[in-house]
Amino acid sequence: MVSDPDYEVIITSLAERSLNRIQSEAVMTEALDLIGALKDDPFPAYARALAEREHLWVFDFGSAKYRLVYQVSKKQKKIIIKVVGLRKDVYGKAGLYRKGQGLQDNDQATEPDPHSRRPVVT
Amino acid sequence: MAHRDSGRVFYQFNHQRSANPADLTRKAARKPGLIYTGKKNMPHVGKSMTRKEARARSERLGRLKNPVPAEKIAEHPFPQMNASYPIQPRITRTGSPYTVVCLQQDDGRYVAEIAGLPTIRFVANTRRQALRVVTKMYLESDSRKAHHDPKEDRLWLQLARANGDEDGITVDQYRQRRGL
Prior knowledge:
The complex is a heterodimer of chains A (about 120) and B (about 180).
Chain A (H helix, E strand, L loop, with lengths): L7 E5 H8 L4 H13 L10 E4 L4 E6 L4 E8 L4 E9 H7 L3 E2 L3 E2 L2 H5 L12
Parallel strand pairs in A: 1-5
Antiparallel strand pairs in A: 2-3, 3-4, 4-5, 6-7
Chain B lengths: L9 E4 L7 H4 L2 H4 L3 E4 L10 E2 L1 H12 L24 E5 L5 E8 L5 E5 L2 E8 L2 H17 L6 H13 L5 E2 L1 H8 L2
Antiparallel strand pairs in B: 1-2, 2-3, 4-5, 5-6, 6-7
């Protein structure tokens, strides 16, 4: 994908704290290399659009255990690293993952299950 | 060691020599090799196969039975079935299609690249080598591609929206802070 070079990459304080939690040197090196590479190509082959309207893009690294979400501003020539995190931990903290039950969805959990035998309490 | 499973076809490495003296007369049974197990009506079932034989068989089966001749590439409905055709559409293990373009340069070497991704490019002495390296480069980059799951995406979108901060430090500054 051909793209304009010389983007400014900014790591927000939240993403910085998340990066500090990475203990493996190899994963840290990979993360910084990938973040640095965004300067030349903000839309690499391994990145995927998360929300095109909000210009949010996402890619995995560290054997797909970690995820990075960034925002691209074409006008300002700026890339903002929004979120970096260990996927497993993020789901646990958000209450979306429970052992044995897999990934939960809060939005769908609020809706009544039509196949459930439990009476719906209103 | 032959492993039988109805309807399934696979190879298994033979670590043990057979106790049957009739098997010892066979060349493959004298040293460890591969045993092809599959349907009962197949003639090679239960016979030992060396690694060389197994490789030759897989190559023979993987080869096209009716390859497109070079003279008829232009009028053939599937010209990519000829290996020398420059445009080769392929599909990844995850099901996403991609196209490899391979052309011969003036110096006789072959250059291959992924269509739409000029950054992934390789020049080699042979077409086969160029295609293999480029495919590997692409699939390695593809394996890093974020796994698509609507539930996951919703969560990460919430997290990204929650972070309204637009100021921060550059990568070099971060490296300096961490001493990397």
